[in-house]
Amino acid sequence: MSGNNNNNSYTSIDKSNLLNPEIDEENQMFRRRRTEENDEEERAQINDRPKPKGPTWKGESAKSVVYGGLDAIVTCFSLISSISSGGSMSSVDVLVLGFANLVADGISMGFGDFLSSSTEKEMAFKERDVTQWEVDNHAMSQITHLIERYRELGMDPRDATTVVEIFSKYKNIMVDEKMMGQKGIVPPNEEEKPWKSGLVTFTSFLLFGCAPLLSFIILIPFTNDDTIKFIGACILSVLALTLLGLAKAKISGGSYTLSALMTVSNGVIAAAVAYAIGWSLRNLAGLEDP
């Protein structure tokens, strides 16, 4: 029993080396000051402050859906805008280029998300190994650093020492706390699957990216005017961006209006720039088909 305990805990902190009479006096003054300044205000606010709205969907999938969907709409809409600025391509050309670009970009985005998630996870595991070694071989210096950090955050010295003394009894907690507190790295999650993030990004990219192209399919039986089809693509793109913005606000618990305005503004600005560049190259620079 005693040997097992030694493997999973550290020798208790010698408080005489970390605290002294001057710190005790500072501790007492600190507590009195905090009590006088904060207690009354906290009592006045504790019953009036409503509970903040939290996110409704947590995890990496939420990031992949929003990231893939927004990039898909903006990319596809910008491509259609640049093509339509010249007016020399038919609806078939737009659909061929649009869907080819959509699938290719979707594969690239999904694989890129997989690689970035894998790299982030591998780096977290490597950093945890380094932190584990530091805690195993330089326990007292790591304990001292944590105490100083908690004091900088506003914790009085005795409480900081007590908290770190408790952490020091458990290696895993000590390592995770050092990673988050001192290095700003979230400990790796064994259940996180990078391939899942890549698949969600790819699927979201294809689904949302189809929105601007639907106009050129739906309106085929009704009109041959490519300008009308382009206007329809603009409307569908704005609707898709708005829905994505509302979904983002629902997931994160943020403002629906602000989120929708941000996503729509992003798409409108990107499409306007693409249209302007396409028009300028054709009409000002003279880059026309022979």
Automatic annotation (TrEMBL):
Major subcellular site: membrane
Any one biological process term the GO annotation gives: intracellular manganese ion homeostasis
Chain segments annotated as transmembrane: 199-222, 228-246, 258-281
Molecular function per GO: iron ion sequestering activity; iron ion transmembrane transporter activity; manganese ion transmembrane transporter activity
Database matches in Pfam families: VIT1
Catalytic activity entry: Fe(2+)(in) = Fe(2+)(out)
Tagged with keyword Signal: no
Compartment list: Vacuole membrane
Ranges for region Disordered: 1-59
Membrane association type: Multi-pass membrane protein
InterPro entries for this protein: Ccc1_fam
Keywords: Ion transport, Iron, Iron transport, Membrane, Transmembrane, Transmembrane helix, Transport, Vacuole
Record's signal peptide: none
Compositional bias per record (Polar residues), positions renumbered to this chain: 1-19
Gene Ontology cellular component terms for the protein in this record: membrane; vacuolar membrane
Domain of life: Eukaryota
Physiological role: Vacuolar Fe(2+) uptake transporter.
Family: Belongs to the CCC1 family.
Name of this chain's protein: Vacuolar iron transporter
Gene: LOC110776363
